[in-house]
Amino acid sequence: MGVQFFGQFLLEEKVIKREQLLDAIDYQESQNLKLGDYAVKKNFISAADADRINQLQQSKDLRFGEAAVELGLLSNGQVDELITAQKNDRVYLGDAVVTKGYATQEQIDKALEEFKEQQAGYHPNQVELPAEIPDKELASTFFDLTHKLLLRMGGVENKLTPAKLVSGSVNIPGERVQISFSGNYNTRYILGVPEIVARKMAKKLINADDPSEEELVDIVREFANVVCGNILARLAQGGKNADISPPEDPPADVALDNEKAVQIDIATPDGDVVTVITF
């Protein structure tokens, strides 16, 4: 079955119906706040402070709490206090389904146990690349940053799926972008984002309920720029000079010519975000 989310499992096992799942997710999202919003609600920081922290997260690979401490807006103790309180207040999907009356607690407990058994062989927060990939540590950073920033910047829950080697060509669905590296490091970073996922990112980043096609393209391009900007910083720290191209619009089927590539499909509840690095 591959990497899944619990909601998808509940649908496949016919524990609940799709409209019930969507309603439960809406309820869950209305109750659960991101750490930044939670910190503002609890008067630990201001909304302007939260924006400053979010901006720093776009240039550095930092969790919200780590960025807040670096800016001097929160202490480590305050971050720990907020995280503990946030976890205690968190509503999980199974809780939301039960609260809405769509399943019993016994049904959810049984389904959750089966789901955990099914997913036990996967490591959805860990990048695992084949041994033949050159510069494995740097290559893994592309996937790791994409995974982290989808949640931090775009508000998109996601899980990493196993990597696969590809050659010849690769299919890139949805809103597509490509950025090329040259100099001391040569690669192409290619990203394909399903439209519904891009719309969620637009809601989070520019508060657009009905973004235009141009806005969706801009959101995905800016996201790719942030990922690649972080990679440039990593290269510079290691004494390597590299240049990146402006974001380009690749075709749906990208020819690899004399290149090989590694692909990781990043699973979301609304379809996979395709991420490719060439070598």
Description:
The chain is α+β, with helices and mostly antiparallel strands and 279 residues long. The chain folds into two domains: 6-119, no CATH class; 136-278, CheC-like (Chemotaxis protein chec, 3-Layer(aba) Sandwich), CATH 3.40.1550. Helix content is 49%, strand content 18%. The chain has eleven helices and seven strands. Strands 1, 2, 3, 4, 5, 6 and 7 form a seven-stranded antiparallel β-sheet that branches. Helix 2 (18-31) packs across helix 7, helix 3 packs antiparallel against helix 4 and helix 9 (136-152) crosses helix 11 (213-237). The longest helix has 25 residues, at 213-237. 31% of the residues are buried. The mean pLDDT is 96.
Set out the fold topology.
Elements: H1 6-12, H2 18-31, H3 35-41, H4 47-59, H5 64-70, H6 76-89, H7 93-99, H8 105-119, H9 136-152, E1 159-160, E2 164-171, E3 175-183, E4 187-193, H10 195-206, H11 213-237, E5 242-244, E6 253-267, E7 273-278
Antiparallel strand pairs: 1-6, 2-6, 3-4, 3-5, 4-7, 6-7
